[in-house]
Write a structure and sequence with these properties.
This protein has 409 residues and is α+β, with helices and mostly antiparallel strands. It has helices spanning 2-14, 16-47, 72-84, 130-134, 152-156, 170-177, 245-259, 271-278, 280-314, 316-324, 329-366, 375-399, and strands at 58-64, 89-95, 105-110, 120-125, 138-141, 150-151, 165-169, 186-189, 194-202, 220-222, 225-226, 235-240, 264-270.
Length: 409
């Protein structure tokens, strides 16, 4: 193989333009495919992020009331009592949000009072026993006691003071306190700079809303605030016994309409629909990038096949002479495989540099993570294998050229 390198390089210098185009095509494919595969993995990793809840058994109902009603607190208690009485219901509440949902309420959270800028921005979940209803996993401390809950509208109007307790996720606890225990530590929340004491830590609880960075997806808290309004200001979250989510959802909608026939059911869905909607864009992006990779690899393979076929046609007399001088078919086959390997290697070397440059641009402009080094050698191997497979058919045709071709004028 090494003895063919010199003649191959000499032949390529005579066809600089054609060879350069193939090298450039391979380089661009290498650069784009390496970054695209990395982005596909990144998108799919987002889709698999844990919500921290009992997804298979959680259902979600959003309602809207028509006209004014009486005591919102009493209506809320009546709605929840009716839902909790449905056979197969484990827990029910009204919350401001659900993990990966459309609506999110956030606030700043500080480690000391009167900070000029927040230590971290968090997403807050409100609702009586919302953590238990969602099925979160408690890893330290406790959930809120019934006596610690206050109505959110009473809090907003100043009728009650904020309860001095809060629950946070393990990810947020590590961000704030490192490896130290978060229990009994004080944090200051919101523009009111309210001091709250951490009484519990849950394993995972993903935030809602869009545009959340993966590193901050679990910067969430649980607040001991009851949502009022009978579903007009919030949304019903119900957790069923295993395997009964569909039946519970239908019965819950029926029960809510029975309590108030004028109530409008805006949304009724299993939690899977919420997750699917949230990550629809990520899945679509991954699918688009897969298509781009396939198209680029196919186009590159066709380019190699076309170039090799052209050169075989141009060199038939030269190949015949080599055969007449004693070259075996395997020698001719090896020649074209070596030639393609050299072109692919040039393209891959340039492509790796381009891949690194593209990744730096994506990091600067779109805050994407750095491309892991493992993608470059893997991409190189893929393109080397693709090149050898693509040139195989033209090389076999070249190897089948008979020595008699050398005698033709």
């Amino acid at each position: 193989m090494l003895k063919d390198v010199g003649p191959i390089l000499s032949a390529l210098r005579k066809h600089r333009l054609t060879a350069s185009l193939v090298v450039l095509e391979i380089a661009l494919t290498c650069a784009i495919v390496c970054n695209a595969v990395f982005l596909i993995g990144d998108r799919l990793a987002m889709v698999d992020l844990p919500s921290g809840i009992d997804e298979a058994n959680v259902v979600h109902i959003v309602t809207s009331d028509i006209g004014r009603h009486g005591d919102g607190h009493a209506r809320t208690e009546a709605d929840l009592a009716a839902l909790r009485a449905i056979p197969g219901v484990v827990a029910a509440t009204i919350s401001n949000s659900v993990p990966f949902g459309d609506i999110s309420w956030g606030s700043g959270l500080n480690l000391s009072p009167n900070q000029q800028t927040s230590t971290v921005d968090v997403k807050n979940f409100y609702g009586e026993r919302v953590g238990e209803t969602l099925g979160t996993h408690l890893v330290a401390g406790r959930y809120f006691d019934a006596s610690e809950y206050v109505w959110l509208d009473d809090l907003a109007t100043g009728k009650v003071k904020p309860p001095p307790v809060i629950m946070i996720t393990q990810g947020l606890a590590r961000h704030l306190f490192g490896d130290a225990s978060a229990l009994s530590r004080s944090v200051w929340v919101g523009s009111g700079n309210t001091e709250m004491r951490v009484i519990g830590v849950v394993d995972h609880l993903a935030s809602a809303g869009g545009g959340i960075d993966r590193s901050a997806i679990e910067f969430t808290t649980l607040m001991p605030w009851r949502e009022p309004g009978g579903g007009n200001l919030g949304s019903f979250i119900i957790r069923s016994q295993p395997g009964q989510a569909d039946r519970v959802l239908a019965l819950a909608v029926e029960k809510l309409k029975q309590i108030d026939p004028r109530r409008v059911i805006v949304k009724k869905e299993l939690y899977k629909a919420i997750r699917d909607d949230h990550f629809a864009g990520d899945r679509a992006m991954a699918g688009l990038l897969v298509a781009v990779c396939v198209i680029l690899l196919v186009v590159t393979a066709l380019g190699i096949v076309g170039l090799a076929s052209f050169w075989v046609g141009q060199r038939r007399r030269q190949i015949g002479v080599r055969r007449a001088l004693g070259a075996r078919r395997v020698d001719v086959l090896r020649y074209f495989q070596t030639e393609n390997f050299l072109l692919a290697s040039m393209g891959i070397g340039l492509g790796m540099a381009l891949a690194y440059g593209i990744n730096l641009f994506l990091m600067r402009e779109y805050e994407l993570p750095r491309l892991p080094r493992v993608y470059l050698p893997v991409g190189a191997v893929v393109l080397w294998v693709l090149g050898q497979l693509a040139v195989l058919a033209p090389a076999l045709r070249a190897a089948s050229v008979p020595p008699v071709v050398a005698t033709r004028g």
